[in-house]
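Our preliminary data section would be incomplete without showing what the modeling component actually yields. Below, a chain of 132 amino acids is followed by its predicted structure, encoded as tokens that our downstream tools consume directly.
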Amino acid sequence: MNSKQTYIDFILNEINNGNVRYNNVCALFCPTFGVTLQTFNKYWKAANRLYNELESAKKEAIIDSELTELKSKAKANLRLANKTLLRIIKKIDLVEEKAYDLTIGKIIVYYREPNPMEIIEAIKEYNRINGI
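Predicted structure:
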């Protein structure tokens, strides 16, 4: 490894360890390598440029990963919605209804066949989702 890379790696290491102040890193760098302030400035700028590029690449990778995960979840949700809508259209699925029963004082759940308007709405929604 050449000295230029060593200088940049040293500064990057300091930045990664939380030592991000110019004066603090300079106070460590110049005596360690026996270089002038002008030389330090040159490598400080190069190291900061490289650090920013690396951080941008990390953020892009994280965003890409999250986007891929969101896409797969969205596809799964669409598949489930499609399956449910098709079942309603074919009158295989029953519609869940909830009602408050005054006699027992509780909410009861019962199932019924979809009415014609619900079937039409399900067909419209199915067509909207599938771009038909």
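The chain has one domain: 3-129. The helical segments are 3-16, 22-33, 37-89, 116-129. Preliminary results of this kind motivate Aim 1 of the renewal.
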